[in-house]
Amino acid sequence: MRKITAFTLFIIILALAAGCGQSDFANVNVKSSRIEFVDPDYDTTEGYLVLKMEIENLTDSVLYIESSSPTNEEGEKHLWFVIKDEDGNEHKATYYKEIESNIFPMSVSPRTTTEGELAFMVTTDVSSVTLEVTQNVVGEGGSKVIYTKEISL
Predict the structure, then answer these.
(1) Structure confidence at residue 14 (pLDDT)
(2) Has residue 5 been placed in a domain?
């Protein structure tokens, strides 16, 4: 049986420590939600669901925030956000000029955290939606749902 020397053990510990905190995926946290009507004096049947969220990029690459499955350069990492209503309808993130800290479209630098708001056009006849955040690496042929949350309206 071969013994592990103190030096070998030291090298193993260094290698493990170097990988701590690294991930191929992002952390997403929804902090709050609200509905804003485009014209409350005229129409309250649809509005913008505005989600305040925090995105922490744990990767070594820039993460691009998209409204749908991306088709950009090979090797780029993307996050895309979709909400699904009770009937299974999907709503993509959309630009809404009235929110102050819009994070769509945007990118998140490696090893940084950003906070902002994302908007979705929704009808107000549903009582809840489910947010689904997917991350992929274009060119590697895969994606992964990294966050889901039910949101009451």
Answers:
(1) 42
(2) no
